[in-house]
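Contributing new records

If you add data, match the layout below exactly. Sequence lines come first and carry their own label; structure lines follow with theirs. Keep one chain per record. Anything else will be rejected by the validation script.
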Amino acid sequence: MSEPMGSMPPATPWWRRRSAIALGVVLAICIAAGIGLRGGPKLQYFTADVTRGDIRDVVDVTGTLNALRTVQVGSQVSGTIAKLYVDFNSRVHEGDLVAEIDPRLLQGALLQANADLANARAGVIAARATVDKLRASLVQTKADYDRAVQLAQGGAMTQSELDLATANYSGAKASVDASVANVAQAEAAVSQKEAAVTLAQTNLSYTVIRSPINGVVVSRNVDVGQTVAASLQAPTIFTIAQDLSQMQVYAKMDESDVGRIKVGQRVIFQVDAFPKDTFPGELEQMRMNATTVQNVVTYDAIINCANPDGKLFPGMTAYVTIPVASAHDVIRVPNGALRYRPPLSPSEIRSLYAKSGIAPDSAPGPAAPGGDEARHPIAADAHATPTRRDRAATAVVWKRLPDGSIAPVEVALGITDHALTEVTSVLAGSLTPGDVVITGSLAASTPPTPGAPSVRR
C-alpha cells in the first residue's frame, strides 16, 4: 500500500547533526589559521644601488651682477635739457660732454651779478672821494679851532665862540671817521658782489654736464626738452658703469654656509643668457652686515669676475657654485638611505643589530608607519650635510639581501652633495658597490610615495 498523503520524512540522526557542526568549526579554524599565517599586507621596498664615484660638496647661492663702480650723473641746476650727446650703451671718457642745459636764464643771472659788482665798485670810489672831501674840511676846521684857542687866550674871543669852534672841529673829525667806515662797507659790498658773480659763473658752468669717469652709459632718464628741477635733490640724467670688463656678483649667503667658505676662494657661476657657459670668479669679501627676512639670516658675498668679451650685463642673475670639498673614487650611498628605518619593533631591530654586530644602544624606538618619515637617531637628514656636523658622524643603512631579507650596516660618513653621501668606512656589517640599500617602504594598501627611485619585491 502506498504511504498516506502529507506524511513527514524521517528525522536526521543527532550524531550526523553534531558531525556537521564539528566539521564547520574545523573549517573556520583552518581558515582563521590560514589568514593568521599569511599575516598583514606585504611590504614594498624602494631601493637604490650603492655606487663608487666622485662627490663634490658645494655651496649654491644666487646673486646679481653689478659693475665695479656705478655713478649717477645728475644736474646741480634747474632748467630745460637743451642737448644730449650720448645715449644708452655709449662709451664715454672722463671729461666728455654728455648733456647741456639751456643756459639763458643763468647767463642773465651772471650779467646781473656783474652789474651789481660794477655798482659796488663805483660805490667804493664815491666813498673814498667823500673821505678825501671830509678830510680837507677837517683841516680847515682844525685851523679855525686853533685860531679860536689863541684868540680866547688873548681875550679877543668869547667863550661861546671858542665852544662853537671846538664843536665844529669835533664834528669834522667824526664825519671823517664815518666816511672811512663807509669806504670799508663799500669794499665789503664789492667782495659780496664778486662772490655772487663767482656763484653765477659756477651755476652757468653746471649747465654743461660732463662724464666724471670712463665707462658705459647704462641708463638715460631724460629727453631733450625735458625740465629738470634741482631744488630738493639732484635729478639723475645718466647712470654710467665704470669698466665693464671687470664686474662683481652680489650674492646672499645663508648663515649656515658662512663658516664653510673663505675669502679668496675660487667659484664658478652661470647666467640665463648663456646657459652653456661657465664663468670663473673669486670671493673677494664676506660682509658682516646681516639681513634677516622671515627669520632667515643671510650675509652679502662679493665675488669678482672678469668680463673681457662683454657678455655679462649689469643686473643679470648669477647662479654661483662655491666648491667646499671633494672626494674621488669613493663609495656613495643615497641620502634617502641614511634616514630610512624599517617599520619593525625595537626588539626586532635590536635582534638584527646584534646579528650585524651593531651596538645595542643604537637601536631606535618604535618605527613610524611606512618607515619613510622616521629618522635614524644618528643618521643625517637628506638636506643636513655631514660637513655641518662632525666629520666622523655615523649612520645605519639597511641593505636588501638577495633572499629578500634586510640587514643593517653601520657606516661612517664623509662629505655629501645633498644627493649622495660618502662612506668613509664600514663599522659593522658589509657594504660594497653594487649592493642594494633601502630608501623607503610601504604596505601594499598604502599609496606609493612620489619620487621613489625603484621598487624591488
